[in-house]
Amino acid sequence: MPVIMTTFILFISSSAQSASEKIYQSAGEAFRFEILTQQKDVVWGFDFINEDQLIFTERGGALRSLNLKSKTVSNIDGVPIVYASGQGGLLDVRVHPKEKSKIYFSFSEPTKDGATTALAFAILQGASLTNFKKIFSAHQPNLNTIHFGSRIEFDGKGHLWLSIGDRDQRDRAQSLNFHNGKIIRLNEDGSIPADNPFSKDKTVKPEVWSYGHRNPQGLVRNTKTGELWETEMGPRGGDELNLIRAGLNYGWPVITYGREYYGPKIGLGTSKEGMEQPIAYWVPSISPSALTIYTGHRFPKWVDNIFIGTLSGQHLRRLRLENSRVVEQEALLNDLQLRIRNVRTGLDGYLYFSTDDGKIARLVPAQTVNKQ
Fold it and tell me: Domains of the chain by range and CATH?
């Protein structure tokens, strides 16, 4: 059975007066919050080129790099034109796991019919992208400005996943003839893997890995088990944490724990045979964005915990799982009232996140923050 998650907030008290000095506690780990840079736009995605440098997107269309030692920010040229309207823009960015100069990014692509979610890669040479190649464009574009998705995740075996929102055409999330409301799987060059669940069915989109999603903005692979985990936003309630498996239907909009924003129920209820139940769901909404599974060495008691950035919830949520069941959760940093858009484990073992008000920050052990 899924675990219902209410918006219970754990407030952590402290006598310190500033955010950078305040000591927080979680699961036996003492930590501080350190701001690395303050930009003017939503920092939608980021990833690590090496232990000293990360690359990040701003939703308005800028791609930049941040030196983690000097805290200096540099512009990167060669980014494509994006549809920067509503929830659209330059979205996720990922560094290839082995070829560190190969940069993948998702974006809202402007088309004659509106916009759609697209995926591309390019080679980073100095401060410029070269050899740009678009490898995927979701079918089909529309004029809506919401629910583009989209996170990128590698499987470590030459493939990647991309999450795509329903684009406010919810019924298409159940149709295998559209990419709306899907998680797709591609080879790293954009071709279609032969072992995709629908690759041999000529009547449907062969890129589809799973379907029945609303607006999935979180996607992470457990490097120990190979499991793919996803978070998606429900409407009024019904945000979900899902364990994604090939070919399965996750229900939207036929089943959901959420309701219409103006009150009525959606679909048939909360369950139906042949449709997957979430591992956890949240009522009221917390608006989960990205998630990570902590794998660093700086916080030993957090290893294998899931951390989820929340938007309307304005906190960083920690979950502990046992046998794919949530057995503990708490909300961190809620006193800072930040809309946390992305969260990742750093190569240096710290826990990094970005916010809608332009921050890139990290959590560091309390005793080491002043040594940065």
Answer: 3-371 (2.120.10.30)
Which residues neighbour 198 within 8 Å (Cβ) at sequence distance 6 or greater?
Answer: 176, 204, 205, 206, 208, 247
Q: What angle do CA 352, 43, 219 make, to 5 degrees?
A: 65
pLDDT tens readout for residues 314-371: 999 999 999 999 999 999 999 999 999 999 999 999 999 999 999 999 999 997 544 4
Give dist(CA 55, CA 67) in Å, integer: 9
- Answer yes or no: 147 catalytic: yes
Contact between 156 and 97 under an 8 Å Cβ cutoff? The reply is yes
Which pLDDT band holds residue 21 (cuts at 50, 70, 90)?
A: confident
Could you tell me the CA-to-CA distances from 27 to 280, 296, 310, 338 in Å, in that order? 20, 15, 20, 21
The secondary structure of residue 106, as a DSSP letter, is E
> 152 forms bridges with which residues in the sheet?
162
- Strands (E) in 170-215, as ranges, are 182-187, 208-211
Catalytic residue among 96, 139, 147, 315: 147
- How far apart, in whole angstroms, are the C-alpha atoms of residue 181 and residue 211? 6
Query: Maximum distance among all alpha carbons in the chain?
Result: 63
Q: Measure the CA–CA gap between 205 and 198, rounded to whole angstroms.
A: 7
- Length of the chain, in residues: 372
